[in-house]
Design a protein that fits this description.
2 strands; mainly alpha
């Protein structure tokens, strides 16, 4: 029986957009990690409004840097949304648009969440710092559900192209599922929901590594380190 070759996702990624999107994701990881760590290790004392106010007033420069970091992260998210659309639109325009809109929606939610922190700065309302941080975390957690849906959509697109390695697409999918399960449950049930440690750890790994591995894959593709076409043999009809 003769065989024919099916070309799977023949379009190559734009090296420029691959590099821009990959670098933007890495920059977000650094800035987001700094902002999250500063909030939870220094500025926000859970359950103690007076201690939170004291920590804020003693670390105003750090708090201001944290607010700016979240603003930049949100803007980079919008850039990544555009990058994803430019990279995958030739493959599946509608699916790509959905993935980009989900990422853009998450960025807008993050901006709203960050506005709760910025209000403390603008109004000099550090006495309400604990409430501001709580509002930020609640809104951000809801936004991460959109982020998880974006990762699932991105995983589906990545599965179809040769320049995204299959393990990377799998990590994206598992990470997206993790955000939907953990953050979705947190948004719906709040502190009443406590996940077993194996669930948090099991999902936490792909939640962290999924997009980071995708960023590295983009940078590899930008320098031509992976083929653009995946060929699959099948019987000739």
């Amino acid at each position: 029986m003769r065989a024919r070759i099916h070309l799977h996702a023949v379009s190559c990624p734009s090296p420029g957009w691959a590099a821009i999107t990959g670098l933007a994701i890495l920059a977000m990881a650094i800035l987001g990690g700094f902002a999250f760590a500063s909030v939870h290790s220094t500025l926000h004392v859970a359950g103690d409004p007076l201690a939170t106010e004291s920590a804020l007033r003693a670390n105003l420069t750090l708090f201001h840097a944290t607010v700016w970091a979240w603003v930049i992260v949100a803007l980079l998210d919008l850039l990544v949304a555009l990058g994803v659309y430019r990279l995958f639109r030739a493959l599946a325009p509608q699916q790509t648009l959905i993935a980009a809109v989900l990422r853009g929606g998450y960025a807008l939610v993050l901006i709203v969440a960050t506005s709760r922190l910025a209000k403390l700065w603008i109004d000099d309302g550090y006495a309400a710092g604990a409430l501001g941080f709580s509002q930020f975390e609640q809104i951000w957690s809801a936004g991460l559900v959109l982020f998880g849906a974006h990762l699932l959509a991105l995983a589906r697109l990545g599965w179809k192209v040769a320049w995204v390695a299959r393990p990377v697409a799998i990590l994206l999918g598992l990470g997206g599922l993790g955000y939907l399960v953990i953050e979705g449950g947190q948004s719906l049930l709040g502190s009443a929901l406590t996940w077993p440690q194996w669930v948090s750890v099991g999902f936490g790994i792909p939640m962290v590594l999924g997009e980071l591995s995708f960023a590295l894959q983009l940078l590899i593709s930008a320098i031509g380190g992976r083929p653009c076409v995946r060929a699959a043999c099948g019987p000739l009809a």
